[in-house]
Specification:
This protein has about 200 residues and is an alpha/beta fold. The protein has six helices and five strands, in the order H-E-E-H-E-E-H-E-H-H-H. The protein is about 40% helix and about 10% strand. A five-stranded mixed beta sheet has the order 1-2-5-3-4, covered by helices on one side. Helix 4 runs parallel beside helix 6. The N and C termini lie far apart (about 40 Å).
């Protein structure tokens, strides 16, 4: 029932976002357009594509990464020595496969475990538009104790290119609601910006 109540506000929120605002995916010679979502814990963006990108992340203190990409998307990826790494592949707008409830739950749990054990974590998909922001919304909701809409607004504020898929957000809301204890009230999403949370490393 709660998930159904989220449909209207969520649809209105996403309708106000303009796909034309999405920047092009970064070229290997450009800086990685990543963003802190939770300072010292979680940054998100596109897949690193050059040594320069990995150095950029390391200079920000990041040596852990969680990927939402498929194995075939990472054929040219070389992870530097000394990095912690985990990956759960998720579909994007290309619909490589249907997104399954248990798959999203597993990705969220594994990403949260990596943040707990080896923060800060760089959470990425191919372009930083859909899959990594989806998990970032879930992690922000869980770690900050806020609802999905507030978490989505926060992730969009920190990482404006974020455009998670509507149906995937509805599924995520179901996961977050199921984990919420009976009678527990989630926060209203009043988040004070912390230094660095609005810019990438």
């Amino acid at each position: 029932m709660e998930g159904a109540l989220m449909v209207g506000p969520l649809r209105r929120f996403l309708k106000g976002l303009r796909p034309a605002d999405r920047p092009l995916p970064p070229m290997a010679e450009r800086s990685l357009p990543c963003s802190w979502v939770l300072t010292g814990q979680l940054a998100i963006g596109p897949m690193p594509r050059s040594d320069r990108h990995w150095r950029q992340l390391e200079e920000a203190g990041i040596r852990s990464r969680f990927s939402c990409c498929y194995q075939e998307e990472e054929t040219a990826l070389i992870i530097p020595a000394g990095w912690r790494s985990d990956r759960i592949s998720l579909p994007d707008h290309r619909a490589q496969e249907p997104l399954l409830h248990h798959r999203l739950a597993l990705a969220l749990a594994r990403a949260e475990a990596l943040v707990t054990d080896a923060a800060p974590v760089y959470l990425h998909c191919m372009a930083g538009y859909e899959r990594s922001p989806l998990l970032a919304v879930g992690l922000t909701a869980r770690l900050r104790g806020i609802d999905l809409l507030a978490a989505l607004a926060w992730v969009r504020r920190c990482h404006p290119m974020a455009m998670p898929i509507y149906d995937h957000l509805v599924m995520l809301e179901g996961l977050l609601s199921a984990r919420q204890a009976p009678g527990e009230q989630r926060g209203t999403g009043q988040l004070d910006p912390l230094p660095g949370e609005e810019r990438g490393p």
